[in-house]
Each structure stands twice: as C-alpha cells, then as structure tokens.
Amino acid sequence: MLEPPYLLYLGGAADTIAAKTARGLAVWRPEQCIGQVRTDPAGISVGLPDLTMDEAAAAGARTLVIGVANAGGIMAERTVADVLLALDAGLDVASGLHQRLADQPAIRDRAAALGRHLWDVREPPPGLKVGTGVPRAGKRLLTVGTDCSVGKMYTTLAIEREMRTRGMSCDFRATGQTGILISGAGMPIDAVVSDFISGAVEQLSPARDDDGWDLIEGQGSLFHPSYAGVSLGLLHGAQPDALVLCHEHGRERMRHMTHHRVPPLADCLQRNLEAARLTNPDVIAVGVALNTSGLDERTARDACTEVEIALDLPCADPVRHGVGAIVDRWAVCFGR
Amino acid sequence: MLEPPYLLYLGGAADTIAAKTARGLAVWRPEQCIGQVRTDPAGISVGLPDLTMDEAAAAGARTLVIGVANAGGIMAERTVADVLLALDAGLDVASGLHQRLADQPAIRDRAAALGRHLWDVREPPPGLKVGTGVPRAGKRLLTVGTDCSVGKMYTTLAIEREMRTRGMSCDFRATGQTGILISGAGMPIDAVVSDFISGAVEQLSPARDDDGWDLIEGQGSLFHPSYAGVSLGLLHGAQPDALVLCHEHGRERMRHMTHHRVPPLADCLQRNLEAARLTNPDVIAVGVALNTSGLDERTARDACTEVEIALDLPCADPVRHGVGAIVDRWAVCFGR
Asked: Which residues belong to any copy of the D-glutamate N-acetyltransferase-like C-terminal domain (chains A, B) (predicted)?
C-alpha cells in the first residue's frame, strides 16, 4: 500500500488537533518520516525538518501525506496546488480527508499523466459483506472509550509496541484514518455503509491461527449520541477476548456535545462487556488507559490509583507511564 | 416522490418472503395498487389482477414497483428487460434493490430518452450530517425487535392506522425499502454511511410542534451480530418517548445465524430502554407485538397473556388481534 518514507503536509495548521494525523505519524513512525511542509512558518510543527517537495524527493521521500484535518474534511485550494507540486516532484500522495484526492479533477488528471498513486484512506474497500458473528480463530484485544478522542489509537499502538518488546506476535488493526496512515493498512470504519460495520471489522481482523493477537483500534463510544452505532458494530465485529477502556481524566461532557455527560467508568465498562458478550461470551477487561495530560505527576498517579481501586483493573496513562501494567494483567489472564 | 397507482412486479418469486415488498404494498396501500406482473404464472401472487405493462398503463398505472427481493439484491437480466418494457409503456420505475436502476446503462439511457423517472429508494439523500443528540420537540414512538423480520414495519403501520382511527395526528416514518415504498418517503438507514446513522434518523424525524407523533420503523436488533450498530444508531437518533417491542413467538435462533440465540424478551427490552435513555431519559415501553402466525388461536392468546404477565405490558399479535391494547396503554401513559 503506502510507500514510505513520508513527507508530512501540515499546511497552515495552527493547533495540534488540526495536525493530529501528522503528529500520529511523527510519533509512531519517526523512522518513516523525513520532513514536513508548512505553508505558515509560524504554524504548528511536528519537529521534522522543513523541506520543499523537490528537496524531499531528492532526500528519498516517496509519499506526501496530508497530515492535517480541517472542519468538514474539505481540501483547501492551497492544498490542491501543493498536491500538484508534490506529484510534479515525483511523490505519491495519501490523504484521510472526507473529500477525496481522486475527486479533484486537477489532482486526478495530473496523477494519471505522471503515473503517480493517490491513496484516499477514507475510502472503504469494495465488496464488503454483512457480518456473520461466527466465532473465528485467533485472539483479539479492542480499545473502547468513554468518548471520542480519549486516546484509543495511542493506547492500541502502545500495547502493540509493549507486546512486541516482550517478543509477542501481535498486529495493530487500524479503524481510523490516522491509524491507517500509521500502519499502512486498515478499515475506515466510519466511512463504511452501515449494513456492513461488523462485517468490515470481521474482514479487517480475519481468523488467525499463528498464536498472535490482533489489537483493534476502537472508535467513538457506546455513549456518544452521534457515533454509538459505529462503536457497537465495531465491538460485535471484533469479537474481542480482551477490552481496554480508554478515558480522559476530568472530561465531563461528550466531545462537541453540551447535553451529554461522559458516563461513569464502571457503567461504561459494564455496558461494553455486556454488548461484547454477544459475539464473545468470554470477553474480559484487562485495564484502563487514562489520559492525564492536564494533571501534574502526583495527581495523575493518584487518579490512576483511584480507578484501579474502583474497577479492580490496572490503570495507567500510556504517555506518562506506558502500558506495561496493562500488558502484565493481559499476560496473566491469557497465560502469556 | 413516487406516483401511484402502482403496478407490482413479482418476477418469478416463488415464496412470500421474496415478494415481501410487493406484499407490503398490496396489504397497506391496496387502493394504490392496480395490478401485478408475474413472469411465472405459477409463482407467488399478491391477489391483484395479472396485467401486462401496456394494460396497466392503459388502466392508469403510473409506476412499476420492483416488489421482489432476491439474494444480494441483484437485478436479474429478465428484470432489466421487463423494466425497459415498463418504460416503453409509459411507466416510471421504483426499486428497493441494492443494485440500482440508475446503474444499469440500458435502463438509465431508456429512461432519459423517454423522460421517465427512476426511483432507487435505497439511495440515501446527499448531505447527511452526524447526529447531534440535542433534545428536539415532538413525541416519537419506535418499534424495536428481538431480531430482524419479526414484524416491526407491520406493527408501526398498524399503530399509525389505529391512532388515526382514533383521530390522533401521527406519521409513519419509514427506515427500510418496503416501508419507504409504502409511505412514499423515508430513510434507507442500512444504506447510510455509518458516521451518519443517528443523524439520518434525526433528519427523518425532525422536531415537530403540532402535537402529533412520529411513529418510526425500527430495523434489526441490538442482539443481531450483523446489524446491531444500525439498530443502536437508529435508537439514539429517534430519541423515542415510547418503545414497542416486536418478537416472533417460538423463534429460537437469530435470522440467518446458527450461533446466536434470540434474547429473552425482558433482557431485550431492558437493553433497549437503557440505550434509549442516552438521548431520551424519559423513554418507556408501551407494549409488545407478538407474531404468532405459527400458532392456533387459543395458543396465540395464551402466548400473549404469558408475555403480558412477565413484562407487565399489553401484548398482542397485530395481525390477529390488532394493536388496540398497545395504543390504549400508550394513550394512558401519555394522557391522550
């Protein structure tokens, strides 16, 4: 699929959330990222050298990745112009925006003329099937959340890294555009036709008998009034053996929602376990990942301890503390 | 949208499930159906006169409705040929198959040349938005099910008829292709991109302040491993004030599933109420619709009584007994 090394396009992004995709790649695939392109020198940086398209191509870059999201997923005119420059310089281009590269006539025609590849990672594969719910071989861990944007992707990738460090065979299975760009494959689950949500996850994470685990990136929350359908279909399709609950400390209202409170952790975990039992009656929880970025070190530790006592599960901030405690519990529960 | 009177296309359908859409129209909109077209004279009939396309057009028919579903929703070659005959005879054509009329070049070109309309009712409207979960004005009733194909559409339409007979203002809101063809409008919820499930239902059933009720057709089941995501998004988008639980007596396995049992009625109702409270904390159940078609009269009555005692809700078979008892309970609960 995507060919590294990557050049990350930040455009004029002014904050880290707008540059979330580029940041994800820079954090998780630093060895594959050789530079960044900013249209505003005072804009956000992900800490890579600023390169022009030609400099990047000369340095060996293969693919320009549109690493910036904006309201509505629209492709700005300036972005279109810069994509054309990248194609001219010899790069393929990848994007996770709702608005597709292939739907921009100028981009499509230039890419065709030059023989470059365009990767619209938010485009589901053709021929998806409805889910079957038939138990399949292999073991799977799924991250679930109290809300959107609480750290499910980061946690899943951190667990992959930790397990691999311990010599275990496992694979991150991406379900969102940033995760897909990081791992080079995956299923853009929020872009799938609703009849096929669970079937798409069955396809993303097929039966495996090599003793390895699939680590599936969760999306949304069963308690989010916009996206809970996606979360439930994903949960059923994943047939998870293990759940890790993700939460941001102190968040009281659901993202972009003024009418909806973030659910209590215990209720959220209980509801996810109940729903998951439909396709895997043996599912268990193995830990809680707590985003404590707003807290000082001591308060963060106390917050995790409080959750550990309340839920009787290991709790850690993957960024601050790593996920060793969660993987320890997983190893004990599954005899690894 | 669709223009009656309709001519119902049954093709070579050999059983009533294949002809489910035609049957729904013949039962619920008999005054709009003037004939049927069968390619196999021994095939299923919905009790209408057999007409040719030309005879139907001469009798005033405006639209040929593809009233037959087949595996995969594929349009057979014979069907394509018959659609062309209908266009030639002066009819518009409507279809709820996955495979769209407009994607068949022969059909598309002929319709364009003759100025006929093609209605692919499984095509969602453009510009859908993600759900907001913001409480909206008006009252809504939603049918939910233990499984697919247990009578949710029939029950919802029966409640509409019963309420209107009592002089109440209410509107059936269709979410599946048969319901859309019956009511002439609606939202094909299983064809919507998963990000927009709840938003699509918010659009289908917008705020109303005329004291009337929206009666929303449910889909699937929270316990169906293929479709639960659709059911949950629909439930959240509907913000129902009242639920009616639908079930087929004696069904033990989920439709098309050998690994999944139909849930106990009480568990199913409880789980639906819990989930519905996310967007309407005041939701209540007002009755159970029990499909007893396999039972004799006495056993059917006993089965309903058993459910009434177990769930403390009125229970009736909408086909056998009507939905008067359910609407009675609804009227008491909502002071109508």
From this structure: 130-327
Residue A77: how many other CB atoms lie within 10 Å: 8
In Å, how far are A2, A38, A90 from A93, measured between CA atoms?
A: 9, 16, 10
pLDDT score of B257? 87
Cis peptide before B5 (omega within 30 of 0): yes
State ipTM.
Answer: 0.93
**Contact yes or no for A251/A262 (Cβ under 8 A):** yes
Burial of A113 from C-beta contacts in 10 A (0-12 / 13-18 / 19+): exposed
Which residue type, as a one-letter code, is found at position A133? G
- For B18, the 3-state DSSP assignment is coil
The two tokens of residue B11 are 């093709």
Amino acid of residue A94? A
Which of 123-142 (B) contact A at CB < 8 A?
Answer: 130-135
Distance from CA of A263 to the nearest CA of B (A): 10
Residue B47 vs residues A105, B38, B61, B68: alpha-carbon distances, Å = 52, 12, 17, 15
Max CA separation in chain A (angstroms) = 61
pLDDT in tens, A24-67: 999 999 999 999 999 988 889 999 999 999 999 999 999 999 98
Q: Which domains does chain A have, with CATH numbers?
A: 6-120 (3.40.50.720), 139-333 (3.40.50.300)
- Interface residue of A222, A226, A257 to substitute, partner B, most B CBs within 10 Å: A226
Q: What is the mean pLDDT of residues A107-125?
A: 96
pLDDT tens digits, residue range A212-246? Answer: 999 999 999 999 999 999 999 999 999 999 999 99
List all residues 6 or more positions away from B304 whose beta carbon is below 8 Å from its beta carbon: B290, B292, B315, B316, B317, B321
3-class state of residue B71 by DSSP:
helix
Asked if B318 reaches chain A (Cβ–Cβ under 8 Å), the answer is no
Q: Who contacts A312 (Cβ-Cβ below 8 Å, separation ≥6)?
A: none
The C-alpha atoms of residue B63 and residue B65 are separated, in whole angstroms, by 6
